[in-house]
Structure formats: structure tokens, C-alpha cells
Design goal:
The protein is mainly α. Helices cover 67% and strands 0% of the residues.
Length: 217
């Protein structure tokens, strides 16, 4: 990972986040399970298992969004239309049937992920923004590639288990994505906060990699 000390003077924070965590992002994408997912080559069972684990992550992150809704720094990042828990519930209803939540437990890597979200996203605006950026921007970009391949290879659509990757048009637009980057650039984080957020995004990628590694095994 590029260290914050090497960041170019005057570089926008959104660009800094992307460039300084690029290696962490690449390592996550290079996990074998992530590669299968991005090509739509997972089995229906693997896809369903992933959905079940993502449920714990997004449930926690979206609980944090409620806690941060009125925060002057983190609040502007909260958009109810981005929430993935309703979509995950709808997908799991289709993939597993009624009662799927009974007995569903996070695997150890996902529990560690959830523990980190609870540690930093409920009372540290920068921690919330770090994980919000990592998850939702990933879903709005790479997640759309996954959606295309899963639809083709597993024959799923929004009504049969593909809601998670389907966003309202306003959030899928480049206008929203540009606005999100501008918000990152203009939010009045201190330089210390920015450095910590970069580190937290890198940690988020590592937690995601650990989940993919465990799912792959």
C-alpha cells in the first residue's frame, strides 16, 4: 500500500483513497473465490452462502448508518436507497426459503469483520465513511460486473435472487458516483483523519480478503 506520506500535495481525498489502497484492493480481487465470483463461476450454493455472510456485514453497517444519520460529518453519506439489507433479505427468501435466518451464523472471518464495524463505525465518523465507501462504491462499480455474470451463468434475476446487486437508477448513475467522490473531497476531515481513513479502508480490504479466503476453503 502507498503510505500517506507519499501522497501528492493537493491530491483530492477520493483519489488518495483509491490510489493509496490500490494494492490492498488488488489483493482482495486476486483471492480465488473473488475471481470465481467476478466471473459468475460460483455455484448457486456458494452464491447463497456468500449472501448469508454479507447479511451480517450489511446489517451492522446499516445499523451504524442509523447511528450516524444526524452526524454533521458522516450524515451526508447516509442514503437509504443504498441499503442492501432489504435486498439481501429478499434474495435469501428466494434462495433459501422462509426461516432462513434461524440458525444462520457468521463464519469466523465475518465475525471479525462485524466486530471491527462495531468498533469503529458507530462513534467515529471517519470509520463509518471508510467502510461505507469500501462496501457501497464496490457494489456500484465491480458489483455490476458480478451481476451480469451471475445473471447469465446462474440464471438469476432480481425476482429470483439478484436484488443485492440491483440499485435504484439514481445511485447507479455516474452523477451520483461523481457526487460521492466530491463529498469525500469536500468533507472537512483533518489530515490525521484522512490518514486514519486510508488505513481503515486498507483494513477493510484485508477483512474482505479473509472472508473470501475462508469461503474459498
Amino acid at each position: 500500500m502507498t503510505t500517506t506520506a507519499e501522497a501528492e500535495p493537493g491530491l483530492g481525498f477520493a483519489t488518495r483513497l483509491r490510489t493509496e489502497t490500490a494494492e490492498d484492493h488488488r489483493r482482495a480481487e486476486d483471492m480465488p473465490f473473488a475471481g470465481l465470483l467476478s466471473r459468475g463461476q460460483v455455484t448457486r450454493e456458494q452464491y447463497t452462502t456468500l449472501h448469508g455472510q454479507l447479511f451480517f456485514i450489511y446489517r451492522t453497517l446499516e445499523e451504524a448508518a442509523e447511528a450516524m444519520r444526524n452526524d454533521p460529518v458522516a450524515g451526508p453519506f447516509v442514503h437509504d436507497g443504498l441499503n442492501r439489507v432489504p435486498a439481501l433479505r429478499a434474495d435469501l427468501d428466494q434462495l433459501l426459503g422462509e426461516g432462513w435466518e434461524d440458525g444462520l451464523e457468521p463464519i469466523s472471518s465475518v465475525q471479525a469483520y462485524v466486530d471491527r464495524l462495531r468498533a469503529v463505525c458507530f462513534d467515529w465518523p471517519g470509520g463509518f465513511v471508510a467502510h461505507h465507501y469500501l462496501r457501497y462504491m464496490g457494489d456500484l462499480f465491480g458489483g455490476q460486473i458480478i451481476r451480469t455474470h451471475i445473471s447469465r451463468n446462474l440464471g438469476l434475476n432480481e425476482a429470483t435472487g439478484l436484488s443485492f446487486y440491483t440499485f435504484p437508477a439514481e445511485f447507479a448513475s455516474m452523477t451520483f458516483k461523481r457526487g460521492y467522490r466530491e463529498l469525500l473531497d469536500t468533507t472537512p476531515f483533518t489530515e490525521s483523519d484522512r490518514n486514519k481513513i486510508v488505513q481503515e479502508v486498507a483494513l477493510g480490504f484485508a477483512l474482505n480478503s479473509a472472508m473470501f479466503d475462508q469461503l474459498g476453503r
